[in-house]
Write a structure and sequence with these properties.
This protein is of the alpha+beta class. The protein contains 11 helices and 8 strands.
Length: about 290
């Protein structure tokens, strides 16, 4: 799983209690876990991939098995009927800043390219973090600017964080002025008293679902299917909104207050998946260049 422990642990424990199925959890970044699944394809170790943006899952879809899901009960944008994964929750991106240090916060993604923010943006390595890859794909598509990736890299180079969990901490502590993160993460940390504030980007933002999938050729396929059915049950999906500050993928629950009203930019998940390796390779090369 790419989820944080506070997300996956209660779900896993309740699944074990209801089914009697024992679950062994291996956690990590989305990209590193998907690469591990690919490397183990001849002799799969995992049964389920739980978490990760669906564009990342789509890029590794060949390593997943077909699965059953109550797709008719899901929001149309979350059904993915032709794919081998299911959506779990919707996750809009937001810009965050430290209000003690920033009097003129970025209004949108374009402002993150300004030289005044060089070395002041909290951003995690997208080679590890799936949400960071979503940030890059959103930035490119929302701005429609071929040079956006390079200019953003100029502002991050030399200060890239090792994991997405560090983004809010770096901004709250004043180590960085601004960052880009999931609304879910920002909201929880604000409620906990962290010194951050949120901006919904003026260009619109993405709300890419994270998902889950059954590993092809896994040893415990029936148990894996049971787990996917469980995370899409109404009680788990209600927890998605009320406890996790996310948006449910079920039509019956998708009108809750998991996030305030926000504008969506044009975000093509298929494009993001098709260009994932290319974007990550280019980003790595940009990070290795000399600072401007």
């Amino acid at each position: 799983t790419a989820h944080k422990e506070e997300v996956y642990q209660p779900i896993v424990e309740e699944f074990e209690r209801r089914t009697g199925v024992w679950v062994q959890v291996v956690s990590g970044g989305t990209t590193e876990l998907l690469e591990r699944i690919a490397a183990e394809a001849e002799a799969p170790v995992a049964d389920v991939m739980f978490g990760g943006g669906v564009e990342s899952l789509l890029a590794y879809e060949d390593y997943f098995a077909p699965c059953d899901a109550p797709r008719a009960a899901m929001l149309e944008s979350c059904r993915f009927e032709a794919h081998r994964f299911v959506a779990f929750s919707r996750l809009p991106l937001v810009i965050i800043y430290n209000p003690r240090l920033v009097s003129s916060p970025p209004a949108g993604f374009a402002d993150l390219l300004e030289s005044r923010l060089r070395g002041r943006i909290a951003f995690a390595n997208p080679g590890v973090s799936g949400s960071s890859f979503t940030v890059l794909a959103t930035l490119i598509q929302a701005l429609g600017d071929e040079d956006a990736l390079g200019r953003f890299a100029d502002n991050v180079r030399g200060h890239e964080l090792s994991g997405s969990g560090e983004v809010v901490s770096a901004v709250a502590a004043g180590e960085m002025r601004v960052g880009v993160t999931l609304y879910e993460t920002a909201k929880k940390r604000m409620l906990a008293g962290e010194h951050i504030a949120v901006v919904w980007p003026k260009e619109g933002t993405s709300a890419v679902p994270d998902g889950a999938a059954i590993v092809a050729g896994c040893a415990h396929g029936k148990n894996a299917q049971a787990f996917l059915s469980f995370i899409l049950s109404e009680d788990v999906q209600r927890r998605v909104e009320t406890v996790y500050a996310r948006e449910s993928v079920l039509t019956a629950l998708g009108t809750g207050d998991g996030a305030p009203a926000f504008e969506l930019c044009d975000y093509d998940i298929d494009w993001a998946a098709a260009h994932q390796r290319e974007i990550l390779k280019r980003w790595q090369a940009l990070m290795e260049e000399d600072a401007p």
